[in-house]
Amino acid sequence: MAEAQNSPTLDSARAGGPPPVGSTTAGSIAVAAESTVATRMSAPPSFDVADFPVPHGREEEWRFTPLERLRGLHDGTAVVTGDALKVAIEAPEGVTVETVGREDSRLGKAGVPVDRVAAQAYTSFVRASVVTVAKEAVLTEPIRITVHGEGGVAYGHQLIELGAFAEAVVVIDHTGDAVLAANVDYVLGDGAKLTVVSVQDWDENAVHVGQHNALIGRDASFKSIVVTFGGDLVRLHPRISYAGPGGEAELFGLYFTDKGQHQEHRLLVDHNTPHCKSNVAYKGALQGDGAHAVWIGDVLIQARAEGTDTYEMNRNLVLTDGARVDSVPNLEIETGEIVGAGHASATGRFDDEQLFYLQSRGIPAEEARRLVVRGFFAELVQQIGLPDVEARLLDKIETELKASV
């Protein structure tokens, strides 16, 4: 087991400041894990793509991404090709669904693009989907958004906005084949509660780059579950900021990276407001030659964010030789008046003791292997709270495991 952490105990690592940098390699598992100040972008946030230079791969935010596989999303050569994307929204009573132009003043208020692809998406989309949950509305059925690629290049934008004390669950399902750059904004009013499940179940040749911005109101709660299976390259950038004290954010992630796939999740939790909480937990499994997973977890506690309580964790399970994991937890603390802050990262193979225990009780090796992986992911799958989605994801995990046998 290869680990990088900031205290002797992985699950309880807590700190009042950033620990030292460390890296390690175990067998054929390539691991980069470090703890340093929060990653700085090479250009300040902007809605204008011209404010970002074309990346060359040496920049901090692009150093893990194979730019040649972005199919032109990073340098302006990816041109929209007809109706490459179909978006369908099913919403219960109490929800307003609109299709608006780029001039709508509500767009972009949750966050500003922080890299060239996000800015390209913002300057290139023609129509955006806006989903609004009325003040104090408590939905008993989820909002379901289907994003289906039909080949070609597309740029998109979505806004999900909850009024004060509203409660909703949103499922965003990505399927099909596309080269897509899209931004998603979540705006939560005071006391609102939003759970979002974003599933990336693309065909094998798809490319998906997205920035997810969440602005959390006073005493509001935001839960994000990001699930990534398919695609040739998927690069997602969830970003959290707070509009008032008492806000809470939970960011969960599950990814299964197969042969040749590149799956990258880059997170930033910006504690810019006092007395807010955040909890991050991402888990991944990898198998096959060239499978590459990247997890960057940035947490910034600004000087004015007294009373912050935050923790982030990334774990990776490598199933075969030839897979690579880069796991980089970053923690920057500008005030000592906090409740707690910590992070942990671990990457390794199957636990031989677990497999031996199961096999000694008559469970065949193949079935024991599946049980260990299901148990590894079960905690995160249960966070979804929608039986049909949970069952589908567990079936998908089973399918992935059969492919590695």
TrEMBL record:
InterPro entries: Fe-S_cluster_assembly_SufBD (IPR055346), SUF_FeS_clus_asmbl_SufBD_core (IPR000825), SUF_FeS_clus_asmbl_SufBD_sf (IPR037284), SUF_FeS_clus_asmbl_SufD (IPR011542). SUPFAM superfamilies: Stabilizer of iron transporter SufD (SSF101960). Residues 1-26 are annotated as: Disordered. Residues 1-10 have a biased composition (Polar residues). It holds the Pfam family SUFBD_core. GO terms for biological process: iron-sulfur cluster assembly. Residues 149-376 form the SUF system FeS cluster assembly SufBD core domain. It comes from the Bacteria. Belongs to the iron-sulfur cluster assembly SufBD family. This is Fe-S cluster assembly protein SufD. It comes from Streptomyces finlayi.
